[in-house]
Amino acid sequence: MPQNPASAVPVATTGPVRVVGTGLLGASLGLALTAVGVPVQLEDASPGSLALARDIGAGRPAAPGDPEPTLVVVATPPDVAGPVVLAALRAHPGAVVTDVASVKARVAEHVESRGGDDVARYVGSHPMAGRERSGAAAADADLFAGRPWVIVPGPRSRPDAVLAVRTLAVDVGAAPVTLGAQEHDDAVALVSHLPQLAASMVAARLSEAPEAALGLAGQGLRDVTRIAASDPQLWATILTGNAGPVARALRALGEDVATALAALDRAAADGPGAEGSTGPLARVIAAGNTGVARIPGKHGGAPRRYGEVTILVPDEPGELGRLFGEVGEVGVNIEDLHLEHSAGQRVGLATLSVLPAAVAVLETELGRRGWHVVAG
Amino acid sequence: MPQNPASAVPVATTGPVRVVGTGLLGASLGLALTAVGVPVQLEDASPGSLALARDIGAGRPAAPGDPEPTLVVVATPPDVAGPVVLAALRAHPGAVVTDVASVKARVAEHVESRGGDDVARYVGSHPMAGRERSGAAAADADLFAGRPWVIVPGPRSRPDAVLAVRTLAVDVGAAPVTLGAQEHDDAVALVSHLPQLAASMVAARLSEAPEAALGLAGQGLRDVTRIAASDPQLWATILTGNAGPVARALRALGEDVATALAALDRAAADGPGAEGSTGPLARVIAAGNTGVARIPGKHGGAPRRYGEVTILVPDEPGELGRLFGEVGEVGVNIEDLHLEHSAGQRVGLATLSVLPAAVAVLETELGRRGWHVVAG
Predict the structure, then answer these.
(1) Which of the residue ranges A121-135, A158-172, B220-234 would you say has the lowest mean pLDDT?
(2) Do B140 and A244 count as a contact with CB atoms less than 8 A apart?
């Protein structure tokens, strides 16, 4: 029986699985399934993409005479997912069909209005996995490991079809989450599509900034703009495919922009003490406090408080490795960590999050070993 | 001669240094100077704040009969920095006076228009250091280590006054950068104030989101909204104090919001293929690509390409420590790292940035030691 090497749990998907579209998600899925011994048949409209996916080991190109797939995964761009799902339902009358498009209501509506009885074999899904790079060249057998994989059953989806898609998610290491199509689309507008637009719009302001301004960039700017490196065409397709929910979220953000601009214009005209200028700005920041506090912590649980230990680390070969080696010797588990870089100096700050009870022992032991522990 | 323990280089600031305002920046500066043996005199309008700063070791409260300071650092909120600088220039006629307010043009204008000949002893400055927490309780002797410290000489500042402030920055481990006041304010609007507003406005949308939506939160959302946890009152003061430049940057972002909204509304009404809907959205994302590529890499140098090695790490006590210990054994320096958390699963992805030449050896050696190296 195929094994998942990460967890050493037997996988339940038997296959063959047919993957239609060999971009980042399709090729990664092919790699992950191939790694656990599930036969993968690949399809792509582009012979070049198909060959690349084959060459990296994501599966074999589908060929006449192939055994019928038990499961078809449509991993095309979201704007063509609906028609491709319909074609797959017709071409493989014994197979369960899913798609991995990042927008679900439109695909579901397209399939459900045109699919007839075949829709019983269709279940939408969305693995919450991605990276700034795209295409099979960036594919990764572990892309789905530990990520949520949203399962979106339709009103007519057969229970065994839902189970097959859920099993696929589990077999590649993802954590399945069931949501309705509209519920999913509203959620990703807030947690993925709006942050992408905001990051891009902040980064866009840097295009014309003087060099000296960029020299003042700190960790805050780097964090806010990291995802601004994403693919423009792919994102334009995702955003138009979820236009309603994204527009609602962006319109609300635009109202905050208007509120802040009115307050800033008052302050610019009448001085920083201008009546009605600080209140609205403080409320915008305070609303952000409330929102960010709701983001769950590690492992999807409630936000959890860790203690922090910060160490000044000379940026020389082996120093960070030596630090973590010695933390390991002390026997303390690092729950999270944050590296802060220096501008113009060869020193960095490493902040380790550890269980609160471990803070004191770690500070003492690292200090004893000669590390410069920053007073908390 | 006082020593800076981080670098073991003798410090040149002799003091006494008088620190006016014992919040995060003032108390951190007091800690840093005290640590290298420079006498620090503390002032604060609040007896409670003053006592806290004394108790954490940031210096002694100023008292009648104290020796005259050679340098006064005004670390009050930015809205009162101007008057406090003027008072310090008059009270200490032999001292150089600086302030650390995050907005510079307004303070400079206030001081230069009212300070008479005393302005020769005034030099504005801004250490680019901070954290989400505020107040002396969050103070840290290493807060300035490796950060840019902007020096803003006025047209009438004496060269020895500029040197004294520059020396202070170097002595607490910061990297001095000289800019004009307006140049500084325009720069921080782009690299600090606009990102803060955008992060807060994205996070604010989560306040009313259903729990299920928050369960889909990934690293992108966490990065974009990390700084949304900042202090509302402090930020309202900072933003109104730099109202002109922040309004210009926010207005440009607001134009992008309007462009994106128009495209999204077209797509929502006419379907994702609607004419004129994908182009404007792709251009917004592409402009972000251009901007984010200009953010300098580590050490303030040009962005530098590192190779990446990604490892699947079981989230069990000691595993991350063991990994870094073994990276140290292999002799490879970690230039940067990124930890990605799992939702609902006890596994994480650690991505190590290393020199390109070290990628192959690290992958081989870690694989040989039994680590699950993710194919790049």
Answers:
(1) A121-135
(2) no
